[in-house]
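@channel sequence for tomorrow's demo:
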Amino acid sequence: MGLSKKIAYRLQTLREAAKLSQQEVAEKADLSLSLVAKMEQGRKADPRASTILALAGALGVRPGELIEDLTDPPDDVFLGKGKKHKKKRKKLLEALVPVGVPEAESDGKPEKRKKKAK
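structure tokens (generated this afternoon):
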């Protein structure tokens, strides 16, 4: 498994644990939505140090948390985007508790996300 997929998995896990959309992370980090999406899909091989620093700041974590002790993502994380894979991904994310990411306060209702314009 390549480094870009490991970083992608870590970025996605930290973002979802922080209950942020890709758009929100991009805005907080002053990066393009396209770059954040490519990184989460593992299609950005060599992110710049400034990009890692910006993402860490947007997620409220140390920069090292994005790149230290990277583990291989589960086999089915990057397979598809259908309902079946979404349910599996949700179960995996519920089982993960990233170190250093405080749980966001919630009223118990699921957060609604904006749909991307085509």
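heads up for whoever presents: The chain is about 50% helix and 0% strand.
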